[in-house]
Amino acid sequence: MPSYKLSYFNLRGRGEIIRYLFAVAGVAYEDNRITSEEWGKMKADGKTPFGQLPILEVDDKVLCQSNAIAAYLAREFDLAGKTNMDQYRISAIQAAVGDLMTKFVEIHFEKDETIKAKKQKTLSEEFLPVWLVAVEKIYQEGGTSFFAGDSITLGDLYFFFAGESLKGVNEQVFKSCPGLDGLYNRIANNSELKAWREKRPKTDF
Ligand SMILES: N[C@@H](CCC(=O)N[C@@H](CS)C(=O)NCC(=O)O)C(=O)O
């Protein structure tokens, strides 16, 4: 087994999907949480290919881009689905979650309170209802207990990551999507993921 060192900020953010993979696979890694002072120096040193985090050091190789790192680890840990169609389904969920997170981040950093409220309203009344129906449909079409087969994969972890944020705003968010509601609870009950969520550092996002 190679040595793994994940460097990211003390946030869930773009690093958490990688931490979920290590947790579910039961693989040891260094969870290196960088302070803003350390980041200034690290960025200047040019160790990160895009001048951004996360990066994952696998022995002496530096991997970058969170989704690429997640896909790499999922394949290493047999959490990447079995078929081409499984991989499509995982990619579709990853992209859908990416779209949702982009909206969240945009709203979070909006300084004008009127624009912020307007963006929030558009998200909850227009974007999210369409998103939920589409994700529920992708799940139901699979006809299995997880997004891509009958065991947990990277697709489920992306969905769960988004679900945690959505539930932080509205605990009942999946009420009208019975498939997603059951799926969320099934993933939440994964014992390794549960253990990680209980012990991880508490951060706002
Ligand atoms: N596409 C990249 C985006 C990475 C990214 O935006 N990283 C942010 C934190 S979430 C960052 O490093 N910000 C600090 C900076 O740019 O100086 C990925 O998914 O890894």
Automatic annotation (TrEMBL):
Coiled coil: none annotated. Gene3D superfamilies: 1.20.1050.10, Glutaredoxin. PROSITE patterns: GST_CTER, GST_NTER. It holds the Pfam family GST_C_3. GO terms for biological process: glutathione metabolic process. Residues 2-81 form the GST N-terminal domain. GO terms for molecular function: glutathione transferase activity. Residues 83-205 form the GST C-terminal domain. PANTHER family: GLUTATHIONE S-TRANSFERASE. This is Uncharacterized protein. The lineage of its organism: Eukaryota, Metazoa, Placozoa, Uniplacotomia, Trichoplacea.
